Amino acid sequence: MEEPSKRQSTSPVMAMFEGFRSELDEHHDRRERMIKASRDITAASKKIVRALNKPLPGFVAKSNAQYWGIIQTQYKNISRDLQGLNAYRYGRNITGGNQEFMEALSFQHYLEHQNLITYKEANDYVAKLGGEGGPVLLTTEDYILGIFDMVGELMRFAITAMATSGELPGTLVQEDVTSRESHDEQAGDSMDVEQPSTTRTQHPQKRDVLADLRELRLCLEGLEPSRGSKFEGDAEKKMTVMRQCVEKVETALYGLIVRGQERPKGWVPDLREERRGAEAIEGY
Amino acid sequence: MADRTGMVDPAIFEDLQARIDEETSVREELRGIIQNKAVQFILARAHSTPAYAFSKLVSDASLAIEDEVKIIAKLSQAAEKLPYYKWNTMWSRQIQDATYGILLCGWLGGNGSDSQPGRLLTIEEVGGIMNVPVNLKGRDGFHLTIEEYLQALISLVDELARLARNSVTLGDYLIPILISQFIKDLHAGFQILNLKNDSLRRRSDGIKYRVKEVEDVVYDLSLRNLIPKDDKGKKDDAT
């Protein structure tokens, strides 16, 4: 095509397309900045999560500071491009990073407070990271999908703790756990996995990770996504993995109760196929 | 909140579900608005209509476009209060089709083109006919995007390539020349865009084949001396 260059200056069509070109270039540049930031946030979040899973909390807080710093910088850099109309336009490019960060944030929050960070808290947190450019939006989808992933981390946390200490990590609660049990029963269709709970109700004063996992599972299963939305598909995929995660802890606990005494300290249950969500689906 | 002994504050998921339910009802409202194809059905008759009868076709299509614009008004009203890019995938296809209908109608001589075929309506003109803003940047609201307009242009090119052959069948040997020049201009335009590997890129890659198809038609005509003499200037430019 040599012809166009000749016509370039004369044709009104060309002038129009030159306008389009600059608009599209601006769009693509911005989009790429989002994707890059999303990747960096993902990478830093994964490092945070990995470090949190190590049994050295004090040390971890310090070494993770740099990753929190990276995340903050990234959000600050892109926040200006995520305002108003653009919040959703580029939302789909940043959602990966948001979800991964949500996983790290909720996991850390759980380790510190033993409860689930609320959507509002999480959204406020991410909004603050936007800095001068304005708040960054964390959608409910980002939040929920992040929580799904966090279940996987809780599973790993529980298994590691069982292997090293020989019991499930937990906290003492003031009120009787059984009151919450009855609440769960109304909500759920997960009665088929409730059998091992007898081991827990023997000492109802203690709330452990497995109880929390089951509660999360019920809550996540109770959500009804809009028909035909992208979120419906995403949630469905993660649901399978999430259920497997809870069941893995239940299986491990069963093993611990039945054969636990025979095992030496530091024995790790054989759960090799658990590596990551996506692979777990394929194996399913 | 009262029985907060567990890990999850029940209010969290109640709140989330409420938000999701809200979205579900928006989705259903929008879905109810979007459905229309009348304009394309009418304009499809172009393939069996000689150029001198385009004006009747165009006036029929214009009426259908008016109806379509009413639907777009309804959609735009419903969508105005929503974040545009959160929902636009729901109607983007329909807006592209509507844009394409308006563009084709304009090319055939409608929509203020003074019954002369061969005119390209700009994105602003299409937005004017639809009565919606185009390429909004400053604020969030319903509008026609550049991508939608470009997608519709590609549909127009595909359709015109077909029309070039069919108009020859009807004995009209001038239309292909007009189309050939028109498509070449658009092709040159698309060439300067830096498209990423998206659907716009994939579809615009097909334009060069349309250019060639129409060139072949023009070649066949000029080889057989079928192109009217008084249009010499145009012919030289096109071949």
TrEMBL record, chain A:
Residues 177-186 have a biased composition (Basic and acidic residues). Keywords: Cytoplasm, Nucleus. GO terms for cellular component: cytoplasm; nucleus. Its main location: cytoplasm. It comes from the Eukaryota. GO terms for molecular function: sequence-specific DNA binding. Residues 175-205 are annotated as: Disordered. It is found in: Cytoplasm; Nucleus. CDD domains: TRAX. Pfam families: Translin. The keyword Nucleus applies. InterPro entries: Translin_C (IPR016069), Translin_fam (IPR002848), Translin_N (IPR016068), Translin_sf (IPR036081). Belongs to the translin family. This is Translin associated factor X. It comes from Mytilinidion resinicola.
Automatic annotation (TrEMBL), chain B:
One of its GO terms (biological process) is RNA metabolic process. It is found in: Cytoplasm; Nucleus. GO terms for cellular component: cytoplasm; nucleus. It comes from the Eukaryota. InterPro entries: Translin (IPR033956), Translin_C (IPR016069), Translin_fam (IPR002848), Translin_N (IPR016068), Translin_sf (IPR036081). Belongs to the translin family. PANTHER family: TRANSLIN AND TRANSLIN ASSOCIATED PROTEIN X. This is Translin. It comes from Mytilinidion resinicola.
